[in-house]
Amino acid sequence: MTAFCPVTHQPDFYTVKIQYAPNEQCIESKSLKLYLQSFRGEGKFAEQLASEIAQDIHVQVRPDWVRVVLTQHVRGGIELKAIATVGEM
Question: Into how many domains does the chain fold?
Fold first, then answer.
């Protein structure tokens, strides 16, 4: 997944891990891919992205809980992970 830093306007590359307990609906992989690609032109911090993705999945799919782990590819020797959870695990 790609977005850009709202401060430097440089691209940020992420690995996304989504865990959830489905209720009646499941995430369709092609829709998820297109949704994640929609962030390519947006300037957001990793914490904002993780939270927004978790909230959107919770609203659209209505799982019992959802957890999103966004890992920013190493920059300057630092790996950043932003974790957002919605619902009770």
Answer: 1
Tell me which of 12, 26, 56, 64 is the catalytic residue: 12
CATH assignment at residue 30:
3.30.1130.10
Q: Which domain holds residue 31?
A: 2-87
**How confident is the model over 61-86, as pLDDT tens digits?**
999 999 999 999 988 899 999 999 99
Strand segments, DSSP code E, in the chain are 2-4, 11-20, 65-75, 78-87
pTM: 0.92
Catalytic annotation on 56? no
Span 28-38, mean pLDDT? 96
